[in-house]
Here is the input.
Amino acid sequence: MTTPHLLNDIISVLLALSIPASLVSLVLAGISLRREGGAVGGGFTKWIFWAVVFLTLRPLLSWFPSLGVAAPLPAGGISTPWLQSFSSDMSTFVNSFVMGKLVTVLAAYMVLRAIIDAAQGQSPLLAILAAMFLLGAQGVMSLFQAWDTGTRFATVDVLAAAWNYLAGTLMPIAAGLAIIWGIFNFATHKPWLRMVGVALAMLCVSGIWKLVLAMMR
Here is the structure.
């Protein structure tokens, strides 16, 4: 049975909107970073995961034919005019309004939130990190796209590459910041030893992970 032409166009629209949906997921991840922190299982982790899933949606769907489930994806563009216009308008809205304007406003609010948190005696770190993440959302998307292998394992490949980037690039930078924070706490007669321990743990995170893997064998 031939798939109806309109249904093919609807599927094409949904696939075309997967990249804008991934960008929106990154924005929601940045907002959740301030609200919930980066805890595993929290909103930040959840939205990062969905951003990767939306980005690798087409390769992910290729699992169905390999499992014996027919899932033919439409080839070519969107021929229905109003669906083509809808897809183009939604992509423009996300790129021009959300990423071009709204993200900057949200980042500015996070900076204000950091000042308010500091005035209330709370740590401004999460709000600052959220602002930096929101401003760098396009760069994060570019990294994800560079890590996309286009294979059936693309989703896991992107997540694995993100872990390697976190452990090999971001963790040493965070360790340096933790050392600076520890020195500041020492100078102001605040607890500082914990920050030194955190810095050492960040520098050793790859080694700790390899040790866990070795222990499980």
Summary: Residues 181 and 195 are 7 Å apart (CA to CA).
